[in-house]
Amino acid sequence: MSEVVSYQLQGNVGVITVNSPPVNALSQAVRKGILDGVKAAQADDSEAIVIRCDGRTFIAGADITEFGKPPLDPWLPEVLTAIENSRKPVIAAIHGTALGGGFEVALACHYRCAVASAMVGLPEVKLGLLPGAGGTQRVPRVAGVKAALDMITGGNPIAAAKAKDMGLIDEIVEGDDLAAGAVSYARDLVASGAPLKRIRDISIKKETIEPGFFDNARKQLAKRARGQIAQDRIVSCIEAAVNLPMDQGLARERELFQELVKSPESAAMRHIFFAERQAAKIKDLPKDTPIRDIKSVAIIGGGTMGGGIAMCFANVGVPVTLLEVNDEALQRGMGIIRKNYSITVQKGKMSEEQMEKRIGLIQGSTDYVEIADVDLVIEAVFENLELKKEIFARLDGVCKQGAILATNTSYQDVDAIAAATGRPQDVLGLHFFSPANVMKLLEVVRGEKTADDVLATSMAIGKKIGKVCALSRVCYGFIGNRMLGGYGREAQMLLLDGCTPEQVDSTLEEFGMAMGPLAMGDLAGLDVGYKARQARTDLPDDPKLYRMGTLLVEMGRHGQKTGSGFYKYDPETRQRQSDPEVDALIKEEAAKLGVEQRDISKEEILARCFYPLINEGAKILEEGIAQRPSDIDVVYVFGYAFPVAKGGPMFYADQVGLKNVYDKICEFRDRYGADYWQPAPLLEKLANEGKTFAQWDQERGDG
Ligand code: 3H9
């Protein structure tokens, strides 16, 4: 048939087998192979047709690498029409994850069977897309409009048993031998004279949809859209499924799919899809680097961070020992963990039993001797280099040989910490983001002497606990926090120049940031930055620098925890409100400092806040701190809630044009001084050459 799809007659069942690693995506060859298989089966002695896959999964979707390239025949809808119009029943046999176009293939079949471990889903929204091969028309017909809307706008996969309850799957095949089970199911269908069940023939009862249903859905989804348009278009498609005949609904879906494929949002989200997977790969590590077995973990420090990290491991069944200085601190730490899990239970996302099982995996201790045999230690005490060095020297004395010793430091020198041990090759940074049990990013910090297998193991364990990993070399703040400095600085400078806090934050929130930098400062506590600044000796001596943040702290306005900071907060709802007192204070300070206030455009607010990120990112690339520009994007999207629909700061810079970014930075340098604005040499070079960061990276190769 073709290299990636075969067709074989097994008695009275024709079996089409897709074998296109890694995930059987619907490349042109796969589409053609399936079409040829369906055609061949029409002409032979088969009485039913099974579509199944070899390898780890049923078809996981359209081939994302083909988007944006000229279309190649046959297109997927043509294949699905052939399946749906088959004169013999077609049965999809699902294992692994039937996703996107893959699940749409299954939905075009007359019957769907699956192993119990299978998952099905339409995750297109996560790529800024909508299901473009009938998913938006078939799911509401078979599972109902509300369920379809939730499933397609959420994009999360559904387990086979639930999918069966929803009508999306007809049969769960017991045992592991799906190939045999599916053929046997097909034979049963033939023997019972089962009809050709076509989802398109189901009609949706319009009268069951309450008035205003779609408008409400749009409004709800808009609240968390953050610059994404796909959710809105999905609502339109499902509305079309309700109001239009199938073929017109399909045409509407296709039209809106085409709009989304060409949208900058989807391009950005596809960039992040591949960037996320790329980031886990370490350029100079041989593919066959061995991995150390991690069966148990110890966390030093049971504060918010340590507790969150402990939860990450307990969640995947890895036993954890939480080490604290005394029983009181230990009990406090364990209490926070229990409270966090209880919230999840209250939300109905976990059973009591699951909670107890996970808490049961976390054991407290105040004695280093008890962690002598663990495979991985993560130190998460407060940011004090001397204390960390002391702890590592102690770990060196007590931990078994071969244990990985990691620090969760955000700023300290990992090499200095490693040097406190006699085994620096086993030491690295594993930098989690708060709250550690929620935030997806894990910066894996490679020390000067960190061994290859320690890095490979850390990437693997990061994936196991559901994190998105990105590699950083050692520098102050690593990738993420180092870049952040200018962002926070400019947000405050803009106030003196004439913005209100609301203006700054809402402009960045309109761009897609989850929360503006000043509101974020209030949430984290303005005193945190204040204390950190006091410890620094490298900041320019400029009364304007962090002036407002400093004054607010000195007035006792530490942010949300004291009820006020850049904003005041409603004690009940915690909603922020502009505070005229702060607005007046800003004006007063600007006058004292001789800063002439003016109207500042949204464009300037964005440039002042984001261009320092980009500029520092360019330096980080040049110094080899980050492996690739796309790794920086991953850090910002998963660790700092940079909008995925903008693709991360470096991708965004490429879209704006590096020459434009460079020119603006030069303009700001001339206006605000070279202390803060000095274009990175790499940015200058690429701007002059008319290149993007992506091109620069491609030319270097990824070897
Ligand atoms: C769609 O279907 C549109 C249709 O509605 C309409 C069409 C008209 N294409 O994630 P992994 C690669 S949109 C190309 O590490 P896992 C991936 O880059 C699509 N490549 O494995 C990686 O490559 P590499 C809707 C793909 O086991 C390798 O496969 N579908 C695709 O952790 C392994 O991936 C989706 O959005 C693809 N579709 O997870 C599903 N998928 O090794 C997207 C993967 O070179 N995929 N690759 O780095 C996934 O969610 C996960 O890959 C999956 C496996 C859960 C399947």
Strand order of the largest sheet: 12-11-10-13-14-15-16-17
Helix content: 40-55%
- Class by helix and strand content? alpha/beta
Shape-level CATH architecture of the largest domain: Alpha-Beta Complex
Q: What is the CATH topology assignment of the largest domain?
A: 2-enoyl-CoA Hydratase, Chain A, domain 1
Question: Please, how many domains?
Answer: 4
For the record, the CATH class of the largest domain is Alpha Beta
Question: Could you outline the blueprint of secondary structure elements for this entry?
Answer:
Blueprint: E1 5-10, E2 13-18, H1 28-43, E3 48-53, H2 76-84, E4 90-94, E5 97-99, H3 101-108, E6 111-115, E7 119-121, H4 135-143, H5 145-154, E8 158-159, H6 160-165, E9 171-173, H7 178-191, H8 213-223, H9 230-243, H10 246-261, H11 264-279, E10 297-300, H12 304-315, E11 320-323, H13 327-346, H14 352-360, E12 362-365, E13 376-379, H15 385-398, E14 404-407, H16 414-418, E15 427-432, E16 441-446, H17 452-464, E17 468-473, H18 478-497, H19 501-511, H20 517-524, H21 526-534, H22 547-554, E18 568-569, E19 576-577, H23 580-593, H24 602-622, H25 629-639, H26 649-656, H27 658-672, H28 681-689, H29 693-700
The structure holds (S)-3-Hydroxyhexanoyl-CoA.
Residues 22-23, 25, 57, 60-65, 76, 97, 99-101, 104, 123-124, 127, 129, 131-133, 135, 274, 277 line the site of (S)-3-Hydroxyhexanoyl-CoA (3H9).
